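Example 3.2
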Amino acid sequence: MFFHHLKNFSPYSGHIYDDMRVSSVHKKSGHLGKKDSRFDLIDKLGYFPFRELIRDGKAYFISDIDLYDFLNMKESTSVNYTNESYGEWDIKQKEIFELCFFDGYNEGISTFELNLGVSYPALLHEQKVQYLKVFCLHCLDFLYFDGDLDKDLFYNLGYLQASLYRGFIEINNINSSLPEGSPGLRLHFDSHLKVVEISTVPEKEKPAVVKAEPVEQPEKSMPAIETSPSLAFPRIELMCDLEEVRAIWQILTAPMNTSKGKEEAALSNKELTDFLRSAFSSNAFPQTLKRPENPFVKRTSRGDMRSVLNALMYSTYNLNHEYNRSVNQIEYVTSLKRHFPVFDGSKPESIKNVISANALKGMKVIKESQPINPHIEEMLSILKKHKLLH
């Protein structure tokens, strides 16, 4: 157990406050509370599963989406919340608890080492990684926002969030220093690509500190991801929620209302799985998006269905771009062209130039298909949750 010195907190039972006497806020669009999916974060080593919130020139990294949405509330989004005591919720009321969260976060950042205990520095690297995973899971046990409005609770949520952030970063930093470890966090910085390049060069090929006259070496191919002939087609790495991406594309497995009338499903469920595995990859969950032997190709009708495909890929780009900024938009449209021959007559650059406009047309078709397509409601709710649809 950890956080023995934290006020209004039990390392065994969690936050200490009278939940029967505090006010609470409710989200009109959904439920606030514990979600088992929060523990998935520990399986995403190498990724950066935090959202950045900037306040007064300082960055705060938040893993819980409900908590992030609450703290990032603006005048335009405050109407999405109600409060038992105040009725409609407003920004000024939120700022009271926001400051408590930031105070706790700043304290958690500076006292991270205190919580690890006296034995942590003496552990071996491998032992430290395991120890930190337990530490992060303990943070996640109590790091969720269920709408209760208590100043001490928000202070402790900030403290736990900072502790989780520092623990997660420490695990990745240690892993990157181990001989068989990962190249560290997959960020959108150019330095990460260089780290990957260095980490994939065999030891005997790495340059010595002092090098004599260059000696001609037989050409060797550097080990890289997905280089065998059968794996020649590139895929886009997803760092966002894989289930949400699947839910977006799931609308293709049901009928659509187009200008040609009712069109039957463009893909079967198996074809959808084949497409997702052909177009996307996941280093965190490689078996979920296991690469097929050959790229998936499917013919669809032209016109409205082409606009729908634009909308789906544009939505996927926006959803994933927040977490994986190393992949640009041209790679997404190239994937569209590779998997759907309806784009054969267009160059990737021309598709990219009009994808946002065509995505709007596609979204109109999608919305008009709601009465006959049972998957569209979930897709639209996902886009609204991520502020990609208003």
